[in-house]
Amino acid sequence: MAEALERQARALLTAAAVRARAGEMLDIGLAGGLSHFIVDLDRMDGVAEAVLAVTRKAYPALDVPFHARWRHFVIEGVDRWAGLANVASLPDRAARARAEFDLAIVSVLLDAGAGAAWRYRDAISGKSIGRSEGLAIASLDMFANGLFSRDAGSPLRADADVLAQLPLAGLTAAFQVSAANPLLGLEGRTDLLRRLGRLVTERADVFGLHDTPRP
Questions:
Q1: pLDDT (tens digit per residue) in 105-120
Q2: Which letter does DSSP use for residue 42 in this model?
Q3: C-alpha span between 126 and 121 (Å, rounded)
């Protein structure tokens, strides 16, 4: 029974399952069965033209960069992570890859709706950056400053035991949160990283194969 349930659950993670559910939702929408949306295929050409116009305005040569967390680490054409990693004392490519996984996992988990008011003051560019872009640079600065590391001499890591005990005050200061600069969901972000840290600590057989437990 348990194995069958596991197979069913894993099946939901496949591209085929996503397409199937999307098809079901489309059928419901076309039948007028959605509570908050109407599907009007007659307007699809207009939507496509609007998307093309916006894309061509931003990227006339259609050289659209891929969208990912790593793109958020690039400010004014400068890859901040590459600059850090290239001068860090990482012994080999595998160590760099582990650092990159630590950074990406923690950074993505910290990325949720920041609210319209919050901004992160970037010390290098002097810009005030909001939303996902600001959250990304803030998380990169936290990582570079060793907020998630147990070793002051090796800041570019996220140690599970540090994540499990992450203080709310640490994230509050790192995100530059104040009454004038509120960030939505700060407690939830902190709790998410703590739970990640506890899980990784409990599964050292998975997360501690090449080091002390890390994401």
A1: 999 999 988 788 999 9
A2: G
A3: 6
